[in-house]
Specification:
The protein is an all-alpha fold. 60% of the residues lie in helices and 0% in strands. The chain contains eleven helices and no strands. Helix 1 runs antiparallel to helix 2. One of its GO terms (biological process) is chaperone-mediated protein complex assembly.
Length: 206
């Protein structure tokens, strides 16, 4: 089971990353690795087909529009729990401490340490148990990303849905149920507000 999960996490981390020529070249390898565990391949099929058949510049442009220019599908886990608040700096520091605590050098590639593809790659290649703890801790973030992708009919939605199935417990039925799971309302973009504002209470254990 651990080997299957590691393969799935690494494939997901790559498929959710910014598409470049290196990623496109990896598609046959990703498909072959997932094919070792047949049930893991279907959620990836649409993204792999998209990478193989879409001109690279077009795929890159769409990725920037969907994942970088807006927050609807933000892949930074703590954005969904802490918004753009001062508390988020502490949370990002906690992610870095997890990476350092594993004794492995994690290349952030200029990304914030809570970037989902980075967390997945860490779980797959460095410390599966600790990586899954991070994913479970930010389960509401994963679920909200999933619902956002599904709402906008993006090919990455099946991958995130599959990631949720690797974690304990059933997925919430809708976004309101996710909010109840988290224990508070949606994130805000409120730099400079009091980090102890009750509307911005962190997740339990965060």
């Amino acid at each position: 089971m651990s080997r299957r999960t590691q393969v799935m996490y690494l494939a997901a981390g790559w498929c959710l990353s910014y598409p470049d020529a290196e990623l496109v070249a990896r598609v046959p390898m990703i498909r072959a690795a997932l094919s070792e565990f047949p049930k893991t391949l279907p959620p990836f099929a649409a993204v792999l087909h998209y990478l193989e058949t879409t001109p690279l510049l077009e795929a890159q442009g769409q990725y920037v529009r969907e994942f970088d220019l807006g927050k609807r599908h933000a892949l930074h886990l703590s954005y969904w729990t802490d918004g753009d608040t001062r508390r988020r700096g502490e949370v990002l520091g906690a992610f870095k401490n997890v990476y350092r605590g594993s004794g492995a050098l994690v290349d952030t590639h200029g990304e914030l340490p809570d970037y989902l593809p980075m967390v997945l790659e860490y779980a797959a290649t460095v410390d599966l148990a600790r990586g899954q703890e991070l994913l479970q801790q930010y389960r509401p973030s994963l679920e909200l990303i999933k619902f956002g992708l599904q709402r906008d009919n993006l090919v990455h939605s099946d991958i995130v849905a599959a990631l949720c199935t690797t974690l304990p417990g059933a997925s919430p039925a809708d976004e309101q149920a996710v909010m109840r799971m988290a224990g508070y309302g949606p994130p805000t973009e409120s730099v400079g507000l009091d980090p102890y504002d009750p509307r911005l209470l962190p997740l339990k254990g965060a």
